[in-house]
Amino acid sequence: MDENIAPILKNFIRQAHSGELKTSIYPKEWGDFKMKTSFGMGAPARVPWIAFTAPEMQVSNGFYPVYLYYKDKGILILAYGISETHESTETWPAEVMNSSETISAFFDAPVPRYGTSFIFRSYTIKVSDDVVFGFTEHAPNMQISDQDLDADLRTILEYYAKAVAKKVEDKSSPTQQGLFYIEKQLEDFLILNWASTELGQRFDLIVEEGELVSQQYRTDIGPIDILVRDKHDGAYVVIELKRNQTSDDTVGQIARYMGWVKKEMGAQDVRGVIVAGAYDRRLEYALATVPGVEVFLYEVDFKLKPFSEE
């Protein structure tokens, strides 16, 4: 990532003292994560924040790294954040909760918000003539460097990515089940509604002897989620479905299947399509080395309509 967090944090702290609530100048993404900034709604918050969430998480329901600025105390905390809006069934691993201090315990006093979140790092903040100075809590006279601020954020984000990945791998986890719980339903949905999808406009399902063979197409290196042919030139197209966020690992997988189709089926031109719930920036670089692969992101559109007996 080219940007570093220090200038964003300094602007965030200055704005927290100004009373301005607009957040349009702040990034909406940070690496592979969503970034959300809040100074309050309608009135300035006592604890403005910057949160970083994985695609599977929400600020109102989940766990995530978050900067919490207790401006009346002059303390900025980089926290193992836990949602207060809804009590999430998912939280940080036990090793965090067993070894980290809560924010309430850190201050040893009631705090207006987020007291049950855990401390990762704290910084003493001083603002003089609109210039922000940050100091480590353990060495209050030693100003922290921009590089140290970046390193702290990078460390907690790397840990968070691993923690969320474990939740997604756990099939009993609500995080896993809440995604298009869909990996099998996503596949069935596409097949059943093929003609009305964008994929169906471009590709034909494969039928052999009156039987649909596109879905879970058998190979000796594992089944292809969906194998189809291009309507225009008849080229084979390998479609891989990812329940949630796709990553660079997906490129290796689809490349193997494309290679199998090319070698074992004698296809001259084989292409690939990845269908996923979210986009990982690492995928962009991996795709640069594998031509002929496209990415589609699915959206779940859930609607209610009045009941009618007619």
Percent range of helical residues: 25-40%
DSSP summary: helix tally: 9
Termini distance? Answer: 57 Å
Structural classification: alpha+beta
Would you tell me the overall average pLDDT? 82
Proportion of beta-strand residues: 25-35%
Question: How are the SSEs placed, and which strands pair?
Answer:
Blueprint lengths: L4 H14 L10 E2 L2 E6 L10 E5 L9 E8 L4 E8 L11 H6 L3 H5 L10 E11 L2 E6 L9 H24 L4 H5 L4 H10 L5 H5 E3 L1 E2 L2 E2 L2 E3 L6 E7 L5 E6 L3 E2 L1 H17 L5 E7 L1 E2 L1 H7 L5 E5 L13
Parallel strand pairs: 13-15, 14-16, 15-17
Antiparallel strand pairs: 1-2, 2-3, 3-4, 4-5, 5-6, 6-7, 8-12, 9-10, 11-12, 12-13
Summarize the structure.
The radius of gyration is 24 Å and the shape is elongated. The chain is α+β, with helices and mostly antiparallel strands and about 300 residues long.
Account of the 3D structure:
The protein is an alpha+beta fold and 310 residues long. The chain folds into two domains: 5-170, Metal Transport, Frataxin, Chain A (2-Layer Sandwich); 183-297, Trna Endonuclease, Chain: A, domain 1 (3-Layer(aba) Sandwich). 30% of the residues lie in helices and 27% in strands. It has nine helices and 17 strands. It has helices at 5-18, 94-99, 103-107, 146-169, 174-178, 183-192, 198-202, 248-264, 281-287, and strands at residues 29-30, 33-38, 49-53, 63-70, 75-82, 118-128, 131-136, 203-205, 207-208, 211-212, 215-217, 224-230, 236-241, 245-246, 270-276, 278-279, 293-297. A seven-stranded antiparallel sheet has the order 1-2-3-4-5-6-7. Strands 8, 11, 12, 13, 15 and 17 form a six-stranded mixed sheet that branches. β12 and β13 form a beta hairpin. α8 packs parallel to α9. The protein starts with a helix and ends in a 13-residue tail after the last strand. Mean pLDDT is 82; it is low at 169-182.
